[in-house]
Design brief:
CATH architecture of the largest domain: 3-Layer(bba) Sandwich
Distance between the termini: 76 Å
Structural class: alpha/beta
Helix content: 25-40%
CATH superfamily of the largest domain: FAD/NAD(P)-binding domain
Number of helices: 12
Number of domains: 3
Strand content: 25-35%
């Protein structure tokens, strides 16, 4: 058994692990990263964010080709299979792996591929694929092992027609009808993707509103456009049992309903990848979803061990995970690169996409904050008309007395890009955070960003 000594060992090479490793290495620490795959990138690159967003992009291109009259001169609308569309995602994954492998090499970070677990508070044992065991001794350790789909014991995921959001990427055919159980972010995104391929989708929601953490107007818009894409949304439903049959799956609901489809995609929750870490050897406990509790410094109950990313729970976003990992390492190296990540924009890659930051109308009303609303509808924006993307709007919520921007909510084309302009203004201190910025600043024309100017004028004109 070979023994190696490091300043910092990071478990996991997803966004949180990468952020931690890079920050520690830039500060001059000797760093090693352990990953259970033979390639870096974590679930984000191989199973989650990257493949699903690449799939979505390809499906949007297909939808544009099939619905834009200009393309009829080339040919009639075409049908694409799910495996064919998946090939584009595979190409992106390989490019991401190559890029990220280069980052580790340039920063002299050692990579170990195998299953890592704690022998004690400063020792990680890595069991490699060939059975060789390596021992890594470190002063500090960062757990960034991510998460995987939650699998309840009474659902048979070994049935060939039952998938979760990881195994759906192995789907070798295009179902005519698909049940998606769980209408959270992942469920809604896959409902958009499959309906865009012409699949009849039943979206089962445990609650009475889709993505209820969103602004109600945005949530309603998403519901409308999913239904308009032939997605059948069933609210306030819970499964009784899931029956796998030879030619599909039958979902039995507690309400007494039965739904049959060619396949079922389970999208109801995630659990932390902590069960193989040997946490019992160091006294770290996890909650019922396998998640580790940390303080605002991303330190666990063991002082030299930190954790970041999906393995600690909220917000379980790749964007936040990278900053959490970087901040965990910032606490280790004490180079002022630390911050507690709590101002995270929401990015939901449905078709059309959604993004928001700050408070929504419901929250502001409950807090009795006097706010006003400014809106810009994409159907009136020149860039949206040129792009043939008329669906969507930008909504700015601002204090009617101080004019402080309190929330930005966007639905439609490039929403996840557009929101960052509002985020930048909201992060300004004092009077610099003002809706007047958008009317006193010249925006390029035509752009989607111009929606800020239109929405600001709309909101300011409501004041008296």
């Amino acid at each position: 058994m070979a023994v190696y000594s490091y300043d910092v060992v990071v478990l996991g090479s997803g966004p949180a692990g990468e952020g931690a490793a890079m920050n520690a290495a830039k500060a001059g620490r000797k760093v090693a990263v352990v990953d259970s795959r033979r390639e870096v990138g974590g679930n984000c690159t191989h199973l989650g964010t990257i493949p699903s967003k690449a799939l979505r992009h390809s499906v949007r291109q297909i939808m544009q080709f099939n619905t834009n009259p200009m393309f009829r001169q080339i040919g009639e609308p075409r049908w694409f299979s799910f495996p064919d569309v998946l090939k584009s995602a595979e190409r992106v994954i390989s490019k991401q792996v190559a890029s990220r492998t280069g980052y580790y090499a340039r920063n002299r970070i050692d990579l170990f591929f195998g299953t890592g677990s704690f022998a004690d508070e400063q020792t990680i044992e890595v069991v490699c694929a060939n059975g060789v065991v390596e021992k890594l001794v470190a002063k500090q350790i960062v757990i960034a092992t991510g998460s995987r789909p939650y699998r309840p014991a009474d659902v048979n995921f070994h049935h060939p027609r039952v998938y979760d959001s990881d195994t759906i990427l192995t789907l070798s055919h295009t179902p005519r009808r698909l049940i998606i159980y769980g209408a959270g972010v992942i469920g809604c995104e896959y409902a958009s993707i499959f309906s865009g391929l012409g699949v009849l989708v039943d979206l089962i929601d445990n609650r009475d509103q889709l993505l209820s953490f969103l602004d109600s107007e945005i949530s309603d818009a998403l519901s409308y456009h999913l239904r308009n894409s032939n997605v059948l949304i069933r609210h306030n439903e819970e499964y009784e049992s899931i029956e796998g049959v030879d030619n599909g799956v039958v979902l039995h609901l507690k309400s007494g309903k039965k739904i049959k489809a060619d396949a079922l995609l389970w999208c109801n929750g995630r659990t932390g990848n902590t069960d193989q870490l040997g946490l019992e050897n160091i006294g770290i406990k996890v909650n019922s979803r396998g998640q580790i509790e940390v303080d605002q410094n991303y330190r666990t109950e063991v002082s030299n061990i930190f954790a970041a990313g999906d393995v600690i729970g909220w917000p379980s976003l790749a964007s936040a995970a990278y900053d959490q990992g970087r901040s965990a390492a910032g606490n280790i190296v004490e180079n002022d690169s630390w911050r507690f990540v709590d101002d995270v924009p929401t990015g939901i890659y449905t078709i059309p996409e959604i993004s928001s930051i700050g408070k929504n109308e419901r929250e502001l009303t409950q807090a009795k904050i006097p706010y006003e609303v400014g809106k810009a509808f994409f159907k009136s924006m020149a860039r949206a008309q040129i792009s043939n993307e008329p669906v969507g709007m930008l909504k700015i919520l601002f204090h009617r007395e101080t004019l402080e921007v309190l929330g930005v909510h966007c639905f439609g084309y490039q929403a996840s890009e557009i929101v960052h302009i509002g985020q930048a203004i909201m992060n300004q201190k004092g009077e610099a955070n003002s809706i007047r910025y958008f009317v006193n600043t010249t925006f390029n024309y035509p752009t989607m960003a111009e929606a800020y100017r239109v929405a600001a004028f709309d909101g300011l004109n409501r004041l008296f």
